[in-house]
Amino acid sequence: MLGERDWKELIDKMIKDKYNKITKIDDINIISVDECIRCLRRSYYDRKEPLPSRKEKMKRILDLRSEKKECEIDGIKLVGYAYAIMDGVLFDIIYVNDLPKEPFPEDILSLNANLFIFEVEYGIIIYVNREGDTIEFTLGRDKKVFNELIRRVKIFNTLLRDGKTPVIEPSSSCRECQYNIRCYIRKWEQDDSFIARLLGRKES
Ligand code: SF4
Q: Are 84 and 111 in contact (CB under 8 A)?
């Protein structure tokens, strides 16, 4: 019979395995949709010099997607995930604290890319809150939006290969990003004019 310590170790291992299964990609020619729908700099740091983020970890552990498929783009494997494909419709289920009125932009980008990777015309994003309430959004695929993602996949691949850190992509995500000290505080320390510009002061 398992003692309390064994249970804890078993649970820690399960969480670690689940987290690594979704996040761990070591090959620069294998890139996930998730890495390119968000700030490339953040995804780059996650691969090259990761810092722990409890919130990010929990988000990925609660990720319910189990279907995985790849497509090839100029020698790069782009990996997509889905919760399920039924009757030619792709389903994504996402846990949220509060049900949104509109789907989040990154979820639309992710669903759109997965529709192309899984070769499916329509998809449904289902948001679920803690109470078990849901809201659904149905979307069709958009080639232009997918082409933009492909452009970012290629840029990310090149930067990984050349060991060059992507530029800062300022957004509301920076507030909760575990790398914001690297992006902003370090920049402030190195460049006084950056602070002046940020504060709207004229440089002498
Ligand atoms: S702080 Fe902002 S710009 Fe920097 S890595 Fe995070 S999300 Fe990207």
A: no
